[in-house]
């Protein structure tokens, strides 16, 4: 069975590797031909920072064949929808109102509310 070097990421063919059992009983494979792997591992070097390891190459996107065709992302399309109780025309009408129209409508609503309150109070008194 072809194993993979735990430091460099290269293939280790049968009878070419060496097993290293760490103190925490983790087993790692290393290639006997590349003793630098074992040396760097024992120096506790990070394989992500060593340029010739497979992990470094994956992290820095080296040697990717499909680099030319980037994945296209879909743009979100905004749609205007009516809210419950108000259709698009009503929403557009509210948005296009001027400040003067809004103040007039607000004062009319306040006057209407005051009139209703007066009617209620007059009915209570009777």
Q: Describe it for me?
A:
The protein has 126 residues and is of the alpha+beta class. Helices cover 39% and strands 11% of the residues. It is built from four helices and four strands. The strands form two sheets. The chain has a two-stranded antiparallel ribbon with strand order 1-2. The longest helix is centred in the last third of the chain and has 27 residues, at 99-125. The model has no long low-confidence stretch (mean pLDDT 86).
Provide a short characterization of the protein structure.
This protein is of the alpha+beta class and 126 residues long. It has four helices and four strands. Helix content is 39%, strand content 11%.
Share of helix, binned: 25-40%
Which range does the strand content fall in? 5-15%
Main beta-sheet annotation: 2 strands, antiparallel
- SSE class: alpha+beta
- The radius of gyration over CA amounts to 38 Å
Q: Could you list the spans in which at least 5 consecutive residues all have pLDDT below 50?
A: none
Mean pLDDT value:
86
Shape: rod-shaped
Layout of helices and strands:
Layout: E1 3-4, E2 11-12, E3 17-21, E4 27-31, H1 35-42, H2 54-59, H3 88-95, H4 99-125
Antiparallel strand pairs: 1-2, 3-4
Which properties best describe this structure?
two-stranded antiparallel sheet, alpha+beta, 39% helix, rod-shaped, two-stranded antiparallel ribbon, 126 residues
